[in-house]
Amino acid sequence: MHTFEYAPRNQAFTRAIQDLAEGLTSWRLWTTFGYEELRHSYRRTLLGLVWIAISFGAFSVVKIIVFAGLNAKDADVFTTWVVTGFLIWQFVSHIVVTGSAVFISSESWIKGVKLPYSIHIYQTIWRLALQDGINLLVAYVLVVLFGAYSLPGLLLGLLAIPLFLLTAVPVQLLLGILCTHSRDLQQFIGTAVRLLFFATPIIWIPVPGTFLETIARLNPFSYILALFRDPVIYGVIPLDALAVWAGITAFFWIAGLAAFSAFRSRIYYWL
């Protein structure tokens, strides 16, 4: 049973950091839980986790076929553009959507077993990393067979993965707390993410001097996708995207730690 305790700000911040650290050191627990949760999603299916690869590959191919005629780029460039964009969008959008429910979906665990709250975040991120790790293999196969790519860029693009993971933790931390307190916010985030898919350059390529280019420049998700996409296609690291990522990550870490320090002891009662 959790008990509500008032703690000075410095103590609350220390306990928040301890929670994150203790959860991280319990990696055997959350890696096992994350894998079992993913495996359970495909329980009693003939192909099991292979369905992840089939689903991603099928959706990517359909998007390429349907939207290729709407873009002026060469077919091989557009293939890589869609596949890499869809891959990273899936991970980022899943981080946001599952983050809004990370504590709500773990209510029985939180109320039944005394564990660091951060374990539920690490477990969710690990499960998504495993899922999109399979998708990454499929994406690289499609890119190598049908797309345009830089050979060194295929390796350079992998450097973006730890950057995404570093951002995923505070995003889930902040959204998990806010949405546990306000369930309407969870619904709003789910709707906003679905709408942002069309405002993000995934199935369309912004043409310089057009309205779509303006939308792409104003959309922070465009820069997140570019961290992985640009190295794969062009073999270079986009410094502007790296700067935007650093700003976004710093904001979420500051806001996430502030919220976790202030409201960590109330999560139990909000569920």
Protein described:
The chain is globular, with a radius of gyration of 20 Å. The chain is 76% helix and 0% strand. The chain is built from 13 helices and no strands. The two termini are 13 Å apart. It is an all-alpha fold. Helix 1 (9-25) packs across helix 6 and helix 6 (118-146) crosses helix 8.
Quick summary:
The protein has 271 residues and is mainly α. The protein has helices spanning 9-25, 27-41, 50-67, 75-99, 107-112, 118-146, 151-156, 160-181, 183-199, 211-218, 220-234, 239-263, 267-270.
**What is the CA-atom radius of gyration, in angstroms?**
20 Å
Number of alpha- plus pi-helical segments? 13
Helix content: over 70%
Segments where pLDDT lies below 50 for 5+ residues? Answer: none
Q: Note the beta-strand portion.
A: under 5%
Number of strands: 0
Quote the average pLDDT.
91
Largest sheet: none
SSE string, helices as H and strands as E: HHHHHHHHHHHHH
From the spread of the alpha carbons, the general shape counts as globular
Question: Structural class of the helix and strand makeup?
Answer: mainly alpha
Q: Alpha-carbon distance between the termini? A: 13 Å
